[in-house]
Amino acid sequence: MRSLWIEVASSTPKELKESLFDAAKDVCDAVIVDQSDVELAKSYGVPVASRIDGDITILTEVELGQIESLRREGKRLCVEIAVTDRSDEDRVVEAVDRGSDHILITCPDWKIIPVENLIAKVHGKALVLAKVGDLDEAKVALESLEIGVDGVVLTPLSVADVEAASSLVKGVKTRIEEMTESPTIGLAQATILSCKALSLGLRACVDTCDLLAPGEGMLVGCQSSCLFLIQGEVEESHYVEPRPFRVNAGPVSLYVLTAENKTRYLSEVRSGDEVLIVDREGRQRAAVVGRVKIEKRPLTLVEAEIDGTVVRTIVQNAETIRFVTTGGSKSVTDLEAGDEVLAYFQAGGRHFGVFVKNEVVMER
Questions:
Q1: CA distance 215 to 24
Q2: Considering 149, 166, 181, which residue would you say is the last residue of a domain?
Q3: Same domain, yes or no, for 152 and 200?
Q4: 61 and 81 in contact (C-beta within 8 Å)?
Q5: DSSP states along 310-332
Q6: Which of 71, 117, 131, 322 could disulfide-link to 329, CB 3.0 to 4.6 Å?
Q7: 51-95: per-residue pLDDT in tens?
Q8: Shared-domain flag, residues 167 and 40
Q9: The whole model's pTM is what?
């Protein structure tokens, strides 16, 4: 879990100041205040960071020589350093090497590259906090270099700002966290009944801003209750080069599963949206959509059965469209009755993409 600190200026109206401290006590790891507000902030039970008398002592970059002596006194330290060029990055490294517990970095013109450089240099040696101006900057800092900073410092204007920042810090995940912490989707085996060639239709290729691995793809289908795991175009082929960023998902009317167990029609997906990438073990992660490529192509209807229920999907009739199995993947052109492929099956219905367990929906 990453940290959230807030900074409250002494000029903040007293009533707002008290409201912010009250909100911070449940969701923030520390508040930064001037010495005049230390006792007030402490009365709310939230850890206080300040230059004098705080639970955490804040130093500036010109005070690096004091780190060792203050550490010997048992002080918890946070060094604030403005990063404007590479020499400032060296001062951050020096502060970490001298033993500072926290590093608070500020970038006056807020650039991503310095944050990435510092993550690479000091990650795991001290807690790196980034001072940000808004939630968009906070999200970028928390995700930078697929590791992210250890926390952010925000100057809120209201209690709502504190709550929104807390929600972001709790919810945003780096690639590493997605792989190790995300809940898995329970996939079932669907037994193929038949494959039937159809005429032309508009199908959508979803090109992501990421690279998919073998066994990874998107969950799509004709029925919201059953979505088939269609693998990304990661396999070598005699006909085309691999396009591991792409899932040839199927007709524009199909459902695709997105975050929070919601579905959307493929026709609704746009550049900049997020889709869910799932592997054969059910592990999931989000990917940003780079483009959706819609073309008229010959199609194939695939019928299968799960627990006595007939389920269907339609895909392009091409060798590069592969259904994920427990041990590999199989092209739609090679599917035969009796083959087993992976799917996400939920009895129930959907209302504007939201799963409704007890709704009865007939989809044929």
A1: 43
A2: 181
A3: no
A4: yes
A5: EEEEEEESSTT-EEE-SSSEEEG
A6: 322
A7: 999 999 999 888 888 889 888 888 999 988 888 777 777 888 888
A8: yes
A9: 0.60
